[in-house]
Automatic annotation (TrEMBL):
Belongs to the TFIIB family. InterPro entries: TFIIB, TFIIB_C_1, TFIIB_C_2, Znf_TFIIB. One of its GO terms (cellular component) is transcription factor TFIIIB complex. It comes from Angomonas deanei. Pfam families: TFIIB_C_1, TFIIB_C_2, Zn_ribbon_tTFIIB. Keywords: Metal-binding, Nucleus, Transcription, Transcription regulation, Zinc, Zinc-finger. PROSITE patterns: ZF_TFIIB. One of its GO terms (molecular function) is zinc ion binding. This is Transcription factor IIB C-terminal module 1, putative. Residues 337-359 are annotated as: Disordered.
Amino acid sequence: MTTVDDFGGRSCPYCGALNSLEADDARGEVACTECARVVAMGLEENTQTRFVKDAVFGDLNEDGSGPGTVSGSGTLSRSDAVAIAEGRQAGKGAQASKANKYSRALHGQERVRQRLETLCDLIRRGDPVKEEALEILSVFVGRRKERNEKLDKMNESIAACVMLAAARCRTPLPLPELRTLDPSLGDVDLRRKDVVREVQLAEEEKQNRANYAKDLVKHYIRLLQMQMSKYEEPCLTLLEVLRTAAREQTGVCAPLSKLSEDGLCVAAVLLARTQSSFQWSGKPTYDKTSEPPTEVFYQSFAALSHLSATFVTKIMATVKPAVEVLVSRFNEARQQKAEKVAKKEGDAPTTLKRERQED
């Protein structure tokens, strides 16, 4: 006899929604979460335990009642299916509703889910990134399925979703790091644009791009266990100096124009950490006798950041001839910032006095 489990992961025969069928074991019914029609009735159950199979339907109150519970059963009922179809899940915002709508999009695709979770474990950005990546991928896959579009290039899709999730959590994932972890990846940037368009993340992506370099520098500072309060501002200043020198493309700084934004971020952090010629008030001092050789330090950083050692070595070899010029510009930039701060602080009492006189 047909059981409720026979309908798991199937599409609705009425509205055509993919992976939209949910079963109520107690009633022996299967309903569509999109159009709310009952697809089958009088089915035999093959489990004795009542449980909510997916947490998205279990928005319970403290007393155990709520839209996810039904008398005598903990699974989905027809009334729940209607509520979901009409988008009336209590307490859910627009983003949560979107995630819930496509929460079953990865049903039956354990390899895809496992691949994403494995990649998240490798990049070591934490569980929040993994959760955000699963949500983004579910919406992306769900919308493609709605239009019956072929789900191709899944490795690139997974990588793109993880990159977007990492950026959302302010721990950017550079493409060179991804390629070191998986050299077989194709055009991830192109797939990322597809995901942004499909999941409607254009505004978020714009903000992520604006914060990318700053967040990446901070990520590298944390990775090297450097004091954020001592290194953040000098590293960001040095990054601006490197950018300016790269744009000018003159003299010993001309080769800097070949470096990507990722490369400039790496250079800023490693120069600030390993080059004693870059000095500022409060810079930590290190015992030279216990410090590893610079090349060894670069290799250690490459291993920590999942970057190719060759990639890091080439970056530092490119900036080395320009260090003297960069030190001079770095000092000038910090002096200008200090003067602006002093001027702002000096103007404050004058402005306050003027305001009091006007009153």
